[in-house]
Amino acid sequence: MLEKLRSWEYRGIRELARRPVLLKLLCIVFEVEGDFPTRRGAVFESGISKLTRTTADLDTYIASIPKLKDHHIYHILCRVASYFFINLKAQILFATRDVERIIQDYFSEVHGINRDSVPGDIILRGIEQSNGLLVRWSQDFCAFSHLTYQEFFTADYLVNTSAYTDVYDHLYDSRWHFVTGLVAELIPPEVSWDFFSGFKQTIDAQISRDVKLREFLENLNRIATFSAYSVNSDRSNLQTYIRAWYFAYALQDTGQVTNLGSLYTYFDLPDFEFATSMITGQVLEGHEHLYKAYHCLLKKEPAMQKLISLFKKLKAFLINNPQRTEVLEGWLVQIKKEQAELVTADEWWKQKRMTWAKRVAIFMQVMGLPNVFELTREQAQQLRDYYDVTKLLSTCMNRSHLDEQQRQQLANSMLLLTTLPPQDPVGF
Question: Quick check: helix, strand or coil at residue 369?
Fold first, then answer.
């Protein structure tokens, strides 16, 4: 079991083993089947079906449905999970009277039984005592024994009711990310491309309505296309990785990070903090000096020596461009002159740094590098959120039923405002 969990094939479900209650679920699946599914959604489906199957002998005290079958339990839990997660905004603690009402509604709507004749409290108690999926917190409240159970049943409910595109309304809500990932795994393969096309269109719409943000992404793509020629790499989706590099550096200096590129044997948009470590190249290294100088000037803590060092490195990078090299030489001379007019270097930093930050930002614009100097704090946060949700898109894509060609097409579209074409008709 451990050998399988540690293997590359099962990387998609390995995270479940970090929680004791979900490790138990994995053990149940492996004990019965001798193997694991490779997707989390399938693990939940398999494990939960085995847990609910233990409830077959529970009495409902309903004449037309004498025994509580596993499919009753499953659909009731789907209704309970989705009602509180969707309608009550991810509520995780439920009043038992509300759960009993949902049980009564289920038997009334699905089986045509008078709701007043449904003993909701007895059926709820039977579910609680039989499989451990729902647990009592007190006489008046209950909850799922683990949040991921509620999230799975919510995702399954959305898929089974063909309401899975409802997740588009919650892509920027981190509480919905696990549900969204499960939906991407559970939807049928034949609708996967349409689901991801809508996913991409939804997150792009948040940016395309703002002219400044739209220009930022257009500039991002231009410079990534140019810089791709300087990167000595044959890895697929190269320009997407380069877009991620410029995107991250435009917003912040990510600091010194370990290059993780060799660990990625399939496409996965890196976390924002690691974006600048996924790719390297001569042009990128030169542009890195400029970005670091800009972010250095935005910090209140004086870092004069670091700034001068970065300007000198940038000057060396631009040695074949006399006009820009002359600008850098002029900067170094002017900084030295300004420092001489002030008492201390710290005083220069306090009085001059924002003026110089603007000067560096203008220089970046001349070079065609995307930056956020003229954006508001809210716009910069929108860009950060856009990156994080695009990362979610990448993660969901890797867990989905998309074929390899569709994955490549989607990966190439990330951090780029573009419309994905409709899926080709079968046979063409």
Answer: coil
State how far the Cα of 69 lies from the Cα of 363, in Å rounded to an integer.
70
- The alpha carbon torsion through 167, 89, 207, 182 (nearest 10 deg) reads -30
First to last CA, the chain: 43
- Please give the Cα distance from 331 to 335 (Å, whole number): 6
For 147-186, the pLDDT digits (tens) are 999 999 999 999 999 999 999 999 999 999 999 999 999 9
**Tens digits of residue pLDDT in 18-33:** 989 899 999 999 998 9
User: Which one, of 215, 224, 228, 230, lies nearest residue 248 by Cα?
Assistant: 224
Alpha carbon distance 246, 224 (integer Å): 8
Q: What is the pTM of this model?
A: 0.91
Nearest Cα neighbor of 214 from 409, 416, 413, 369 is: 416
Q: Per the structure block, which two tokens stand in for 411?
A: 């990966």
For residue 290, name the pLDDT band (cuts at 50, 70, 90): very high
